[in-house]
Design brief:
Protein name: Trehalose 6-phosphate phosphatase
CATH class of one domain: Alpha Beta
GO molecular function: trehalose-phosphatase activity
CATH architecture of one domain: 3-Layer(aba) Sandwich
Pathway: Glycan biosynthesis; trehalose biosynthesis
EC number: 3.1.3.12
Bound molecules: ligand L263DTV3
Radius of gyration: 22 Å
CATH superfamily of one domain: HAD superfamily/HAD-like
Number of helices: 12
Distance between the termini: 30 Å
Structural class: alpha/beta
Strand content: 5-15%
Organism: Triticum aestivum (Wheat)
Shape: globular
CATH topology of one domain: Rossmann fold
Amino acid sequence: MAQTTVVVPEVGMTAATPTACPCPGSLFPYPPPRAGMAVSRKCLRAAQAELGAGMLSGLVESMRASSPTHARAAAALAAGVDDEHAAWMARHPSALGKFEEIVAASKGKQIVMFLDYDGTLSPIVDDPDAAFMSETMRMAVRSVAKHFPTAIVSGRCRDKVFEFVKLAELYYAGSHGMDIKGPAKSSKSKAKGVLFQPASEFLPMIEEVHQRLIEETKHVAGAKVENNKFCVSVHFRCVDEKHHDVQSWGALAETVKGVMREYPKLRMSQGRMVFEVRPTIKWDKGKALEFLLESLGFADCPNVLPVYIGDDRTDEDAFKVLRRRGQGVGILVSKHPKDTSASFSLQEPAEVMEFLLRLVEWKQLSRARLRLRRQADA
Ligand SMILES: O=P(O)(O)OC[C@H]1O[C@H](O[C@H]2O[C@H](CO)[C@@H](O)[C@H](O)[C@H]2O)[C@H](O)[C@@H](O)[C@@H]1O
């Protein structure tokens, strides 16, 4: 059977490729983690000096670009980039506007929902510990999960994202997909009881780098280090951006990079006003999506339509997997044009909720229609 992919025509698609998922519980053959060396402040300063000025300014530029809420994005809009925005919207149309097209593509297929948390289900706020989702959003996610297998895929520690979402019937992939657990509820689920932690051997190293980053960034007012179990976030949303101040973004970037040099088995990426530190293993949100599809019995299956909604750079790995498989719907949550492999867009969590509720309504109506048809045929 032909595989269906919902894409906007301008963006090319490759043919679907088979999934390659590891067995649940198996560990990757990674070399044993090397404990981070304790390095003196002098060594750290030397490492920092090694960072060329150009490289550092590049990093600060990328920090600036890391959140569409940043003043620059607003200034760019004010400067009249309407054309650029319109062109971007043409390439990534609203998933609400294309709703009928999306559900039509699910004909004969099982929709599986993948939802990022921060910026997708909850609005972005200054304090990561206060990123609560609304009760109405929770109800919408609960309703969606009644009709479709639903997973939360987050950079956060799994327990923490569960504390925010509070729905036991969902699948959770925390730490950027490195901590996957099937639903505690729902005995019907094929993936019930699944637990997959491909980076478990990195736990001591992550704990160590977490402590080091707290220590090294404590002089930077507003910096916040968050332990996400298999990865660490260093937030700079509340750090003053001044260039010549020790408490600037540049100084923070230098400090984090300096610490990272001590841990070659870890890598750093950037999210929305945050540095993400994680193991160098080949595992990300895209791999988590494939793993969950396989656990649900949809490996190499043409009769599935994964729908992934996310707002962050780390969600791009999942959008790319959908493109590579030639299967599924990637939806980027953003008000501003961004480089993305997603096919569609939604502006903000409120639109995500609307999309979820429309899916539920559509599913209920389709079921009611089917019942009526069967009654009429009987
Ligand atoms: O994959 P996600 O669920 O989107 O998690 C990515 C990171 O989200 C959180 O940080 C972001 O949201 C915060 C609260 O709105 C905001 O203050 C911060 O600037 C954002 O980067 C979370 O705190 C991180 O640990 C996650 O990695």
